[in-house]
Structures are given as C-alpha cells and as structure tokens.
Amino acid sequence: MKQFLEIAKIVSTQGVRGEVRCQYYCDSPDILCEFETLYLNKGKEPVEITRAYVHKNIVVLKIEGVDSIEDAQKYIGKILYIDRNDM
Q: Per-residue pLDDT tens for 49-73?
C-alpha cells in the first residue's frame, strides 16, 4: 500500500496574501480542512497548513511561509498528499 495518498491539486491562487485554491479528490472538502500537515513531491516535502476553508466548492489553503501571490503562483499545478498514518 502507498504511504502517501493524493488528496488535492493546487489549481490557482486566492487573493494577494499567498493563499491557494485546491481541487479536492476526497468525498467532502471538509476532510481536507482537517489536516495541519500536507505533503508535496509524493510525500517528500511536508508543508504546514495554517488555515483552510471551503469557498464555493473549492478548498482554500494558507501554506506556512507563502505570504504573497508571487510565492503562491509557484505551487499552481502541484499535487498535495496526505500521510496514510494521519487518517
């Protein structure tokens, strides 16, 4: 079994404070909002989530250290993973 599971894809930015909009792969967007740590690069790079909320059927995340729209644009197209042990 895979240790890290795909849960969402970052599709765009939200606002100018470094938030990102995510298309979720789970049954409910609220599930994605429960995690404090998600992973990039197939589980190799952890990212801390400081805020998460559902807005118009998409999940908006604030990643720690991403504080501008320019920083957030670097994450567009990346897949977010969860650790199976965190479920």
A: 999 999 988 999 999 999 999 999 9
What b/e string do you get for 6-38 counting C-beta neighbours within 10 Å, with b at 16 or more? ebbebeebbeeebbbbbebeeeebebbbebeeb
Q: How far apart are CA 26 and CA 20, in angstroms?
A: 17
Flag residues of the chain having pLDDT under 70. none
Tokens of 34: 């429960």
Find the radius of gyration of the CA atoms of the chain. 12
In whole angstroms, give the CA distance from residue 44 to residue 25: 20
For residue 78, count CB atoms less than 10 angstroms from its CB and return exposed for 0-12, middle for 13-18, buried for 19 or more.
middle
pTM: 0.89
Tokens 């897949």, located at residue: 79
